[in-house]
Amino acid sequence: MAAGATDRVVIRVEVGDGRILDGVTVRKLAGTLTGKQFVDVRRHGKQAFLLIEGGGAVGIHFGMSGRPVFLEEGESPPPHSRVVFSFADRTSFVFRCPRMFGKVRLLADVDQFLASRRLGPDALAADLPTFRTALDGRRGAVKGVLLNQGVLAGIGNVYADEVLFQTGIDPRTPGSSIDAEDHRRLHRALKRIFRTSLARDTDWAAVPATWLIPHRGRKGRCPRCHGPLDTGTVAGRTTFWCRACQPAQ
DNA sequence: CTGCAGTCCTGGTGGC
DNA sequence: TGCCACCAGGACTGCA
After folding, report:
1. C-alpha to C-alpha distances, A161 to A42, A153, A168, A197, A240, nearest whole angstrom
2. For burial by CB atoms within 10 Å, which of A92, A104, A112, A116 has the most?
């Protein structure tokens, strides 16, 4: 993800738009980082953490459009680069965020931060028992359960629709009627979806045509049965599903 | 506790 | 063809 950001000395931190910062000033961020290295990168759900030598971390929440970009010497920051960390070896690490929904923070302790935000286990890292425990007993529409970052961290609106499509579950199904077999199938599908998507650099234009994602949109048709997709608001979010392939319970 | 609306922001889309 | 209004997306706040 942020491969290359570690083990290089930070010599400059530039913030293109201060609104991306949360709870820290440009001055404080730059002052803390200058002369230090990032020693490791962690990810939890939609956030990445660049661990600073000697303690603390830079927390990056990707929002919907945030992307990490590593630049080799001589490469210029792309448009919408909100924060640029420049290293002594002339490479740099950039946080792009066109829609400005992301956040950059300075954290004393990552685990403490995760606990304070009440985030659930990471959706991609969760094994089946963890996944099952997280989902079990949740009320409300299953789509809302999947979107709840306090249940599992990392599933956004588009991926929630995708995993429900691939498991043939109606997004409005009450969480209480999702059984152990559904849990198993959701878990397997989610891993496959995230791994495939990450392998394609999360480019939605590059995912398989058999997925729901390329067909989201007004006149979209189901890639499996070719019937018209249903659209509506579920759990407060725009939702696409196929009434035939995801039968109501 | 739960769920809903409103808010932030801007590139892309739909409609005219 | 060109312009503009509107919408989506994540997470927080405030209200019922």
Report:
1. 26, 16, 10, 14, 6
2. A92
Interatomic CA distance for residues A211 and A229, integer angstroms? 13
* A197 vs A204: CA distance, rounded Å: 8
Question: Which pLDDT score is estimated for A2?
Answer: 62
Q: Is the pLDDT of residue A19 over 60?
A: yes
What pLDDT score does A107 carry? 95
A149: burial class by Cβ within 10 Å (0-12, 13-18, 19+)? middle
Residue A42 in contact with residue A58, Cβ under 8 Å?
A: no
Decide if pLDDT at A222 tops 80: yes
Closest C1' nucleotide to A79's CA: B11
Distance A73 CA to B6 C1' (A): 44
DSSP state of A116: H
The pLDDT value recorded for residue A198 is 85
Q: What is the CA radius of gyration of chain A?
A: 20
- Residues sharing a CB contact under 8 Å with residue A200, sequence separation 6 or more, in sequence order: A206, A207
For residues A29-47, average pLDDT: 96
